[in-house]
Design brief:
The complex is a heterodimer of chains A (about 270) and B (about 350). Chain A is mainly alpha-helical and about 270 residues long. Helices cover about 75% and strands about 5% of the residues of chain A. Chain A has helices at about 5-20, 30-60, 65-85, 115-135, 135-145, 150-155, 160-185, 190-205, 210-235, 240-250, and strands at about 90-95, 100-105, 110, 185-190. In chain A, helix 8 crosses helix 9 (about 210-235). The chains are: A mainly alpha (about 270), B mainly alpha (about 350).
């Protein structure tokens, strides 16, 4: 929950800086990499900054979670307002980076180059994150902090550093997502991150909070449900269907599809 | 600064006062507050919007809704991100019945409140078994569902909204006019006072104690024999009732309602009022509602950057006063287990 504001905000920012990069030429791959890198780095930076401004002091005082939530909401308002003022509330288009080449057709479904790359990248990021949290020393520390902050501290884990890294990783992933969004949809707007942040949060709850595998399948399930609901019931009922599914899942499996056994929240 | 606590200071004055003094304090403050619409010429005036209209919405209606949400979030500690749903239900009841029947605002009021409470119960029974983040996301979803339904079904007139909602009929000397909104202000004020009275009465009785126990530790409360689900639903329903009442008045005041008035932002804003002012403390919540309702209109002269400033104020205040401007009494604070929800 804590990262919600940060994610929304950095995503907003992200898409923008992204589009302002000059584009293409023969060295397409290089350009893509530079853009991806720039957008990840910038989102990561913003996320760390947000953590520093909006969360750190509150955490040091050990205060209630709601104060932190409001502080995060304030921060996300600040960031998205800054972007709104900079772009004069207008959507920002991006030049075409990847030609929309249709590679092949499977059962009438077109496989396009840009969407294929996006899907593969999502898989890759999932695997990297999963490995990172599971195997690396820092990942272990992150899991320890999420289980019990006090015990983690007693074990010599530098809490502030772990949390900063968590925000950084969140920012990087968001930056990458933003990059692929822009390559596929080729535009952005200052408030675009809000609905996406909401969808991300819903997907995380659906899959089970605190569980990368759950988040991945939650995201896929949510996306599919959205598309089918739009096709069967009409686009306008899309979000209603999603929330109804969410309520049902939480009723029968309160910890999410792949969640841990606890129903209680953690901060 | 550290030892000075405005809340205890105010409570001290009240506790030292004897009965006639208390009555005097209460009457003077109510009188002063009800005279506020006449202070339009002073430094309080808002640059662009009409001052007496701003006092009604957002200020007074925000205060009313914050008080309602405070029952849920502050008193019983459940994070509700879909409070706007009840506001919308109240508003649409008023809009629909006001247009299609000959009932007036005062007759529709109990129906609106009843429907909001019904929605509270219907939502509460399945969802209040959840806690924390999960409850938050489900209530958020409920708020969105209500808005999307209003957007897509025919009897709400979809995105065009309902226009021509009737004004309330005059109540004796209190008149309701578009160009003079003092009447609305006084009516909302009366509702605020009633809500305060209700909350204060409930707080010292069984439901209030049950909410307090649930907020501090739900498992312990359950073990001590508190029927937690029942009291959680009660808290939810009472909060919904206040939200519904606010909605009915809002629709009748605004003469027009449309789905885009009931977005998630409203829920978040009201929650911000509660937390900003001082969660769980009625007076803090009122101050929160006043400040966050009034501030954006007062600083409208920096029109473009006002939301930016608003966001900054939220961040700064929460960082320096995490318990809000006017926090609840120390003894009422939960014994917070670190890492577990407060």
């Amino acid at each position: 929950m804590g990262t919600f504001g940060a994610i929304v905000a950095s995503r907003d920012l992200f898409k923008y800086t992204q589009t302002s990069d000059p584009v293409t030429g023969p060295k397409l791959a290089l350009v893509l990499f530079v853009q991806l890198f720039a957008s990840m780095a910038f989102a990561g930076l913003v996320a760390v900054l947000v953590e520093f401004v909006a969360y750190r002091r509150l955490r040091a005082r050990g205060t209630n979670r709601l104060a932190t939530l409001i502080s995060a909401i304030g921060m996300s308002m600040v960031l998205s307002e800054v972007m709104r003022l900079l772009t004069a509330s207008r959507p920002v288009g991006s030049p075409r980076i990847l030609e929309k080449v249709i590679l092949t057709e499977i059962w009438g479904a077109q496989i396009r180059l840009d969407t294929l790359i996006t899907i593969l990248a999502a898989g890759a990021i999932f695997i990297i994150l999963e490995r990172f949290v599971k195997l690396s020393r820092m990942g272990k520390a992150i899991r320890a902090v999420s289980m019990n902050e006090d015990a983690a501290k007693l074990m010599g884990i530098n809490l502030n550093r772990v949390i900063t890294v968590t925000f950084l990783v969140g920012g990087l992933a968001t930056g990458a997502a933003a990059f692929f969004y822009v390559t596929v949809y080729e535009y952005t707007k200052f408030n675009i991150g809000f609905t996406m942040g909401l969808a991300a949060f819903t997907a995380a709850v659906l899959g089970g909070i605190g569980n990368i595998r759950g988040a991945f399948f939650g995201g896929v399930a949510l996306g599919l449900a959205e598309v089918y609901a739009a096709a069967i019931l009409g686009t306008q009922w899309k979000s209603v269907t999603i929330f109804v599914i969410l309520v049902l899942v939480l009723l029968f499996k309160p910890s999410g599809l792949f969640g841990e056994a606890v129903t209680q929240t953690r901060a | 600064m550290k030892n000075f606590n405005l809340r205890d200071f105010g409570a001290g004055i009240w506790e030292r006062a004897n009965r006639p003094q208390r009555v005097a304090i209460a009457i003077t403050s109510i009188a002063l507050i009800s005279l506020l619409p006449f202070a339009g010429g002073s430094f309080l005036a808002t640059p662009i919007a009409a001052y007496d209209a701003v006092l009604v919405y957002p200020v007074a209606i925000f205060v009313l809704m914050s008080l309602g949400l405070n029952i849920v979030v502050g008193k019983s500690g459940m994070l509700d991100l879909g409070y706007v749903a009840f506001f919308a239900i109240g508003a649409y009841t008023m809009g629909f019945l006001g247009i299609h029947t000959s009932l007036n605002t005062w007759e529709i009021m109990p129906i609106g409140i009843g429907l909001a409470m019904l929605a509270g119960v219907l939502l509460g029974i399945p969802t209040l078994r959840l806690r924390g983040d999960y409850l938050a996301i489900v209530t958020l979803g409920f708020g969105e569902i209500i808005r999307i339904v209003a957007l897509n079904v025919s009897w709400t007139n979809g995105p065009n909204g309902i226009s021509g909602v009737p004004m309330p009929p005059d109540l004796g000397p209190i008149k309701f006019r578009l160009e003079d909104q003092k009447g609305f202000y006084w009516i909302v004020l009366v509702m605020i006072l009633l809500t305060i009275w209700m909350i204060r009465r409930l707080s010292v009785r069984r439901p209030g104690r049950a909410w307090e126990a649930i907020r501090q530790d739900e498992d312990a409360a359950e073990l001590m024999g508190v029927p937690t689900l029942k009291y959680k639903i009660w808290s939810f329903t009472l909060g919904a009732a206040v939200g519904g009442a606010a909605g009915v008045l809002y629709a009748s005041k605004n003469l027009f309602i449309a789905p885009e008035m009931f977005t998630l932002n409203v829920s978040i804003l009201i929650l911000a009022c509660v937390v900003f002012g001082g969660i769980g403390n009625i007076w803090g919540v009122i101050i929160g509602g006043v400040v966050l309702g009034y501030l954006p209109d007062r600083i409208r002269f920096i029109s473009d950057a006002r939301l930016l400033v608003f966001g900054l104020v939220l961040v700064v205040v929460m960082n320096f006063r995490p318990d809000g401007l006017l926090p609840r009494k120390k003894r009422e604070k939960a014994i917070v287990k670190k890492g577990v929800d407060a």
